[in-house]
Amino acid sequence: MENSRQKLGQLVLFLLLLIGGLTMLLPFVWAVATSFKHPQWMTSHPTDLLPRDAEGHLSLYWRNHVAVWERTPMAQHYIVSLTVAIAVTAGRILTSALAAYAFARLKFRGRDALFLLYLATLMIPGEVTMIPNFILMSKFGWMNSYAALILPGIFTAFGTFMLRQFFLTIPADLEEAAMIDGCSRLGILLRVIMPLSAPALATLGFLSFIGSWNDFLWPLIVTNTKDMFTLPVGLAQLQGDYARETTLTMAGAVQVLVPVFILFVIGQKRIVEGIATTGMGGT
Amino acid sequence: MPRRNALKEWSAAAPFLAPNFLGFLLFTLMPVGVSMVLSFYQYDNITPAKFVGTANYHRLIVDPKFWASLANTLIMMLGLPLTMFGALLLALALNSKVYGRIALRTIYYLPSISPLIAVAVVWMWIYNADQGIFNSALARIGIRGPNWLGDISWAKPAFIFMGIWSGIGGFTMLLYLAALQDIPRSYYEAAHLDGAGAWQRFWYITWPLLGPVNFFIIVMGIIGGFQAFDWQYVMTGGGPAGSTTTIGLYIYNNAFSYSKMGYASAVAWVLFIIIFALTLLQWRMRQRFGGAAQYE
User: Fold this and answer.
1) By CB distance 3.0 to 4.6 Å, which of A70, A225, B179, B240 could disulfide with B213?
2) CB < 8 Å from A in window 20-49 of B
3) Number of domains into which chain A is organized
4) Domains of chain B (ranges, CATH numbers)
């Protein structure tokens, strides 16, 4: 009796949460539906939640998605965003792992002070560093280049902090054994520590990739021609240029959202654990 | 420590530290210093910088637009208590043995991990005065909805509502979920044996133990709120009549639209000091509460 009442309670709670969750997703569902609607049907029936052709028959009007690629440099934005996100992620994992190893395992004078300095910079708002970094990019002649989009994003204190915390949880005797076998420090990091840290590296990788993919302010500042725009900057431009063509702007938005959704669903376990244990949202 | 030893240790550590540290020095540490210096100069990135002493800070104090953008930013944070309330309810529900916990958590998390610009484009359409979802729904019950983003009294609430939608199932809920999972089951079992009901168990066990995480969420929420930029830039450009110009947007406009980089740096430093003070407060409170080392 008690058991079946509990089960009923759980079912009710599940249904409530499901309805709530679907309501939360409504803006996305509507955006996807709109992106597959015929522009004429959109004009006459703007709030219709189902994708239909010009006569009102249910159909997926994929021309909107093609139109985004034909009428705007979306393909180029994809190339830029992918290149930047992959380079930032790889660079961040590599440099963070090296530095984190020094902070976690090597003894040197001033180590703790230096680590504290890294930690302290975590709270510096981007608004403070963006102006000097913009000036630096223009002095280097890097404006509107991949160097400007990628390099400043690589060296974050967050990655170093996160990996150091993880490296500290790995027992030291494993390394001592490798050391006796004549393995160098770098060899230990690459062959012992890194493989054992796969979960933490994956978390950092997902967070870095999504953070870079979503970033708007920095690419907005350092790019000024469409061929160097990342997806968010390109999407803002598309919204400005085609504000009246909702089927087109929704198709653009959906194309920017979908890769993030896929990545998140694949990596959600790692991402969620990483955020919960570091107490930070990343980037 | 003998000198030779220190040198030897340093030469062992340097190759590991150098790649990260040089970038960190160039793109984080140096810019912080340069920003401080710039805030005492007049600079447009073309003509040579001109030292103006504390003039930028004097101007800031009497600049009504600075104070307005600070007020706008603070007002648009007013959704934080509602976000926290919703996130806590969700975390409590997802912490029970409900079916499909992982799937539900994923659904609720999606809005917060979505690219802000894509979200902005979708919501501009939702808020559209003539054909948006809101006004179409209102029209069905005979109400003529406002031009949400173009109306001086509705633009801020529109952003607050979006903030609650996007924040409720994100980072905040995850922190609550982690905090709830840290509470030992034995506390609840003991309370249950003593005849405490569900509400009493929440009020006398759960709620007090959530103190540190509550405080952390408030501070992080305020720090995040101070950096609001993307939505306002794309959806309203700070309007109507400057009513949604956040402090971040004000800094951006001064630096990159009006080329007043010195003044923009001074505003950025005021923002930095506010955030610094909040972080210090957070550290102090953490020490007082004790434990909860993960909320560093």
Assistant:
1) B179
2) 20-24, 26-32, 34-35, 38, 45
3) 2
4) 77-245 (1.10.3720.10)
